[in-house]
Amino acid sequence: MNEAFSVMKILQIDFDEIQKAMEDVVRDSFDYFLDLHTGKVVALSEDIMSEVGARLYEGDFDEIGDNVEYVEFSEEPNLPCWMEDEVELVLEVLLDGNGRYAHIPERYSIEAHQVMIEFLETVEDPVLKGELTNALNGKGAFRRFKNVLISYPKERKRWHGYNAKAMKKVIVEWLKSLGIEPVHIYQEKKERGADYVREAEL
C-alpha cells in the first residue's frame, strides 16, 4: 500500500457500480472515476472529455483550485445542450489537483479469464461445459461466455454471484491501495434512495 496512507479512510462503496465500470474495458463511450469524498462512481462521456480537454487554455491550472467555473476556453465548446450540464464536472475531474478523483481501472483480461476457467470447473452439465469451453477460445471470450449462459438462467445466476465474489476481492485490493477501507452499500439501501449513477453496458 502507498506509504502516504498511514490511516485507512472508511468510505461507503457501491461494489456493483465499480464492478460495472471495471468490466467496461472498451471505454469508447464513458470513462469512470471514483469520488474519494463521497464514494460515488462518476461516469464521464469520452466525447465531452475530449471536447473540453482540447479547448482548455494551456497553462498553469494550480491557481484555479475549486473555481472551475472561471476556466476559460480558447473557443466556446460546440456541445449539444444535454452535454452542457456535465462540462463543469468534467473540468473538476480533469483539473483535480487535490486527489479527490481516482480513475477506475479496467479489469485485467487475464484475471477475468482465470475466473471463467475456475467457474467452468464447477459446471456439471456436460453440454453447457462444452459450450463454455468453446466460448473461452479467442478474443471476446468474456462476451461469448456470458452469451452462452443466457440460455441457462440458473447457471447464469450462479455465474453472476461467482464473478461478483471474485471482483469484490479485486475491488477491495484496489481501494486499499488508495487508502480506502470500504463499507459495502447493499441493494436494499440503494433502492431506498441512492442517487442515480450511469451504468456501463456489460
Structural class: alpha+beta
Shape: globular
Q: Please write the string of helix (H) and strand (E) elements.
A: EHEEHHEHHHHEH
- Average pLDDT, to the nearest integer? 80
* Low-pLDDT windows of residues: 57-71, 192-202
This entry's quaternary arrangement is single chain
How many separate helices? 8
Using only C-alpha atoms, the radius of gyration works out to 20 Å
Approximate helicity band: 40-55%
State the total count of DSSP E strands.
Answer: 5
What report would you give on this structure?
- This protein has helices at 15-23, 46-55, 81-94, 109-120, 126-135, 141-149, 153-177, 187-191; strands at 9-13, 30-35, 41-45, 101-103, 180-184.
- Helix 1 packs across helix 7, helix 2 crosses helix 3 (81-94) and helix 5 packs antiparallel against helix 6.
- The chain has 2 domains: 26-105, no CATH class; 107-192, no CATH class.
- A 3-stranded antiparallel sheet has the order 3-2-4, sandwiched between helices. A two-stranded parallel ribbon has the order 1-5.
- By secondary structure, the protein is an alpha+beta fold.
- The two termini are 30 Å apart.
